[in-house]
Amino acid sequence: MKRVIIALTSIVLVATAAIGITHYYSVKILSAGRAYTNFQSQYSAGEKDATRHLMSYIYSHEETDYLFFKNDISIPKGDSIAREALSAGKDIKIARIGFLMGGNHPDDLPELIWFFKKFKNVDFFKEAILTWQQADIMVAKLDAIGSQAYNNIRSGKPIDKEELILQINTISDNLTIKQQNFSALLGTTSRMVDHYVLIADLSVSIIILGCSALLAGIMLRKLHTSKKVIIEQNLSLKNMNERINKFVYGVTHDLRSPLSSLTGLVAVLEREKDISKISGYTTMMRESIQLQDQHIQDVLNTISNDSRKGAELCNLGEIVNDVISQNSFFAEGQKVKFLSELEVWELKCNVTDLKTVFNNLISNAIKYADFNKPEQWIKVRSYRKDKHCVIEIEDNGIGIKPEQRGSIFNKFFKSGSNKKSMGLGLYFTKQAIEDMNGTIAVRSLLGGGTSFIVSLPL
Fold it and tell me: What predicted TM-score, i.e. pTM, was given to this entire model?
């Protein structure tokens, strides 16, 4: 009997090891496939945005449109650098730089590089690389057309707008076909991996289930019960920890911006010589403190509840006005200029989360204002797009460095110019938006300002 148990146990161990190895490589391949799908999405978006800005530049001759075109075209060009480096067997650092220029997440780089090196000589991926190379040639041609048009426009030479637009559209259409072919090849890879993994899983699972049933049915049942309890406890602790983290953040980060505005009010008050105006300033200070006190109460109520407060009908104008009133002055005492263009006034959301979003984005715009410019302003817009409310918060501040744009939503990420930041504002902002089933994107030009685009379901 002992020999039977040892034999069955050995079979289970070998089968478990086999399925573990199979899953390791299948997950690695599928993870790489996901990374390449995201890569293709970034590549396509960069090319489409570049095409749009180039056509806009040809008609408008606006320097900003051309700068946006060069910024967008750098995404597929970065991916081209990575492909050439990996194909030629060059230093991996060059490939990493290229992929980062292409807007790929740093965590995806190991999978992108590993998959390319392991499968570059396999038929299906060789075809994908060839499609990629052909697309890069078209991107280079699009870049050349843009540069030539820019040089001609700068020098005052006449240009055939219709012919240029025709060339650009032709390249864009061909690129769309190449991108679709690339996606189709990635889909074939995923389906092939799924097929073989399914067969391996079924075979090994039957062996494991049979042996496990003979060896330890009762033990597995108890283990399952214990595991379930542990998972529930861990989930409860995790939820509590998240609520505590949000509370700590709420009473630190969310208080700093209104306090900075209050500091600005105090500075104005100290310089004010007209006694009749002092009561107006103190009223503003009292209202700001009351609004912040109410916000803290809302955060505390959210944390004290075991479940999150559901969505409710929010008045966007009131929320914007409350946040603006708490962030109306720079720390130096200069009043912040706000512009409001609200087309959508009501949507269903979590009021506390939405206030956190506005407070973080507006306070960031204030922190990174460019005082070298004659005027500092912040614009808040809202409009309907499909079944979503799109909220844009734009400023004319110092902008975001290109190499930092992919990291600004990471936890504890800090800009080098802000020593007092905890690196949590944009992290919690994105988390709050995702909790409301929304998305956030950023558009920024170094020295030219920043726009955060939030999309929430109506």
Answer: 0.42
